[in-house]
Amino acid sequence: MIILQLYMAFLKIGMFSIGGGYVMLPLIQKEIIENYGWLTQTEFVDIIAIAEMTPGPVAINSATFIGYQTAGIWGAAFATAGVVTPSLVLMVLAAKMINRFYENRWVQAAFGGLRPAVIALIAGAAIYVAGTAITDYISVIFGLAAFALLIFTKLHPIVVLAISAVAGIIIYL
């Protein structure tokens, strides 16, 4: 049954994605496109773009959109439940133990190894999405301009997205 498959796929994604939504993107891509074939590469990138623009965590938004695209409202509910289950369980356990173990040198050493790995996963996801989203020299210019606006100005990311959308309408229509 596809709803159970969605739950299990996103449960796996949620269990092995330390570091947040962007870290999940390569795992989502592997599960949803390569393992199950529920979406095409283009559909996946479009859903990630929508998940980025909507309020909330990108992982939850992605799971909800992919679940809905795959199996309707129940698919959205089960995919979302799957991706949040591991975090919910871990946060309940962590809340009970964090004060007792956080200063432990073994825990600190583990975090020291996890932080750089998380950065690598985020960079890998960015490169992966860029490979599909950058289709011509104009999209390269859009990407560089948006990056510059985010890094060198105090513009809010929503404003940068709005500017990019308007520029896309003007140039691509």
UniProtKB/TrEMBL annotation:
Compartment list: Cell membrane
UniProt keyword terms in alphabetical order: Cell membrane, Membrane, Transmembrane, Transmembrane helix
Keyword Transmembrane helix (UniProt): yes
InterPro entries, A to Z: CHR_Transporter (IPR052518), Chromate_transpt (IPR003370)
Transmembrane segment boundaries: 7-28, 71-95, 116-134, 140-172
Membrane topology: Multi-pass membrane protein
Gene Ontology CC terms, in alphabetical order: plasma membrane
Main location: membrane
Top-level taxon: Bacteria
Pfam family of the protein (one): Chromate_transp
Keyword Membrane among record annotations: yes
An annotated Gene Ontology molecular function: chromate transmembrane transporter activity
Family recorded in the similarity comment: Belongs to the chromate ion transporter (CHR) (TC 2.A.51) family.
Protein name: Chromate transporter
Organism: Dethiobacter alkaliphilus AHT 1
